[in-house]
Amino acid sequence: MIKKFKLLIILLLLTNVNTANSRELGEATEYKMTIHKLELCAAGSTIGALGENWNCIDSADVSGGSVGTAIDIGSAAIGVGEAATTLGNFGKVKLGVKYTHIITTLSREFQITGSTASCVTNGDGALTTKTDDSVGSGASKASGTPVSSKLFVPAMAGRAGTASLRSVSDVAGSNPQVNGTIIVSHEFFQTIGSIGSYVLKPGQIPTVTMAFGTQQALAARNESACADSDGDAEMQAAAPVATLTLQGQ
């Protein structure tokens, strides 16, 4: 049997950031991201409110496949709606234990090429990228050939709808921030989301794959500034539409 979950676990929370900041979105033909770790949490785990902390019970590392490797899910690389890669093995968990949540650890840095209606990628951003202003955002231009650029998940704190998002100082998840906070000094971030209910049964060898759509995976923070002659830094990473597929369940 194959189960599919709408992806509440990877980059969904960036969509809330897009909405909160009214960023202009566009297609990413190149969209390289690095997922470093996938963990399942057993029944009783909680996410908590903004400013609180997650509670992951009986964590199980289910990383596998392309985890730890930069993968390009841009439309030029995999096409629209195609599975990008195998990312995990749920067969690593304990038999008979009910798992209800998944935590994903990623790099804040993405390699993106693309354009919105008003803006085109034109150079690298920095870890100092934030939601409050354009500091650290990638260079932009109003038209022309897009330039492959390092763009970052923006630093933020206390924004509505981001309780399932936080930054950490390393792949192991050290020094986690409270729910909804990403600080500029952290190179990694985590998301947590519900997967309903998953129980590994004897004889099952489940694998995890993901399909992505990157038609709105690039953001211009202030699209009106892209036409300026000084090439304002406006480009930021946005969230792809993604579906998690669990095979063998």
Describe this protein's structure.
It is built from 2 helices and 16 strands. By secondary structure, it is mainly beta. The protein has one domain (2-222, 230-247). The longest helix is centred in the N-terminal third of the chain and has 10 residues, at 12-21. It has helices at 12-21, 75-78, and strands at residues 2-6, 24-42, 60-61, 70-72, 83-88, 98-107, 109-115, 120-121, 138-141, 149-152, 165-168, 188-199, 207-213, 218-220, 233-237, 241-247. The model is unreliable at 1-16 (pLDDT under 50).
Distinctive features:
2 helices, four-stranded antiparallel beta sheet, 16 strands, twelve-stranded antiparallel beta sheet, 6% helix, 249 residues, mainly beta, globular, 40% strand
What can be said about this structure in brief?
By secondary structure, the protein is mainly beta. The protein has helices at 12-21, 75-78; strands spanning 2-6, 24-42, 60-61, 70-72, 83-88, 98-107, 109-115, 120-121, 138-141, 149-152, 165-168, 188-199, 207-213, 218-220, 233-237, 241-247. 6% of the residues lie in helices and 40% in strands.
Beta percentage is: 35-45%
Q: Quick check: average pLDDT?
A: 81
- How many DSSP H or I helices? 2
List how many beta strands DSSP finds: 16
Poorly predicted spans: 1-16
User: What's the shape?
Assistant: globular
The helix-strand sequence is EHEEEHEEEEEEEEEEEE
Which structural category do the helix and sheet elements fall into? mainly beta
The biggest beta sheet reads: 12 strands, antiparallel
Summed up, the domain count is 1
